[in-house]
Design brief:
CATH topology: Rossmann fold
Shape: globular
Bound molecules: zinc ion
Distance between the termini: 45 Å
Number of strands: 4
Number of domains: 1
Structural class: alpha/beta
Length: 205
């Protein structure tokens, strides 16, 4: 894919070995998403598109203020054990995620990077216990995790925050960053929040 700008030194996928060798990175950001159905109106990679857009924007701001951050490639598979009945929700079990996370930590320690932020974009990914475990094995690496979707939005910015999936929050972001992949909202059902299974949207009442 054509990158519409010069390589950004804070995006690992775009930068090069020379630039990496010349930079003493302080923080690595690991976006971790999911590939899963998002109702009928948003694409399967919604969480990944959001992760990339938000981490890239945040890293740009940090870099411009002098922070040496590097955004690692997003990991596109998340925990899907709650919706195994939905075709092609790409389940990755927590034990597999931990194995991957350990390998990433090992790479960062070898590169002399002291801090890792796991940037989670999917509700069923839970990194708390994993952070404890990798911190046990790699005490020289400060590791933490955050769920961006838990960040309190500006008051009044959204009219409905009751949903947790394919909701107003996610739909709004996708209309901003990938509008071509959002189908007309008439596809989304009544838009009412519901809990549990990700099957066909529940009708009012
Ligand atoms: Zn999502």
């Amino acid at each position: 894919m054509q990158v519409p700008h010069p390589p950004r030194p804070y995006i690992l996928a775009e930068t090069n070995w020379k630039a990496v060798q010349e930079t003493k990175f302080e923080v690595a950001i690991l976006p971790w998403g999911a590939t899963e159905a998002h109702n009928y109106h948003l694409p399967y990679a919604t969480d990944n598109y959001q992760n990339e857009a938000i981490t890239e924007a945040a890293a740009k701001l940090a870099w411009e203020r002098g922070a040496k951050v590097i955004v690692l490639p997003n990991i596109p598979f998340g925990v899907q054990t709650g919706q195994l009945d939905i075709a092609l929700c790409m389940n990755m079990l927590p034990s597999t995620q931990l194995a991957i996370l350990k390998d990433v930590c090992d790479v960062l320690v070898r590169a002399g990077i002291p801090k890792l932020v796991i940037f989670n974009g999917h509700g069923a990914n839970e990194f708390r216990a994993m952070v404890r475990e990798v911190s046990f094995f790699y005490p020289q690496l400060f590791t933490c995790a955050l769920n961006w979707f838990k960040v309190e939005p500006k008051k009044g910015y959204f009219t409905n925050l009751d949903g947790d999936h394919a909701d107003e929050l996610e739909t709004s972001i996708m209309l901003e960053i990938q509008p071509n992949l959002v189908t007309p909202l008439s596809e989304a059902g009544d838009g009412l929040p519901r809990n549990g299974s990700s099957k066909v949207p529940k009708k009012a009442g």
